[in-house]
Design brief:
The chain starts with 5 loop residues before the first helix and ends in an 8-residue tail after the last helix. The relative contact order is 0.06. It has two domains: 30 residues; 33 residues, no CATH class. It is 75% helix and 0% strand. It is elongated, with a radius of gyration of 22 Å. By secondary structure, it is an all-alpha fold.
Length: 64
């Protein structure tokens, strides 16, 4: 049995999987609820109080 074209077939399967995942992400991001949820997560992570709280949990520079 010849393996001729096996690498090409693997690339095709990988490309199809990548395109499928991208299509699902585009579809989910086109819905308003997911985009709103992601922005809410980003906004809450960037609040000054949250950032300061996270900084207090970091070890001192000499102990990293």
């Amino acid at each position: 049995m010849s393996d001729l074209g096996a690498a090409t077939a693997e690339y095709v399967v990988g490309t199809l999987a990548t395109v499928s995942v991208a299509a699902v992400l585009v579809r989910l991001c086109s819905d308003g609820w997911l985009t709103g949820l992601l922005w809410d997560i980003i906004r809450s992570a960037l609040r000054p109080g949250v950032l300061l709280e996270q900084l207090h949990h970091l070890p001192p520079p000499g102990l990293r």
